[in-house]
């Protein structure tokens, strides 16, 4: 039982990091486009960019492996937006928010990638005869 405690705590940590960074991206996107540094005064429709981030939240909370896999691909769209806006926005606050978005995207990607890797490793360790004969 002690051999499964360490991987399970690592899996829990990666799950916590993934959910936390995803929620962080949602909150950041809304706050950025509505109050902190919107493209237009009073908020902008660009806040709708967080809607696709809400979809995988349920899958991450339910610990679905498939969701971790496709979120690790989808996050690169938000990473790209952060890099472009960090490079091109005029306002220093907007640039700082863009760099925060880039950092959250990197954490989300790493957490999802490690989560999938750890769960696959744990599954292989529980069934060594099936993987050895394949």
TrEMBL record:
Transmembrane segments annotated in the record for this chain: 12-32, 44-61, 68-87, 93-116
Domain of life of the source: Bacteria
Claim: Membrane is one of the keywords in the record: yes
Keyword annotations of the record: Membrane, Transmembrane, Transmembrane helix
Pfam family, one: DUF2069
Entry-linked InterPro entries: DUF2069_membrane
Protein name (record): DUF2069 domain-containing protein
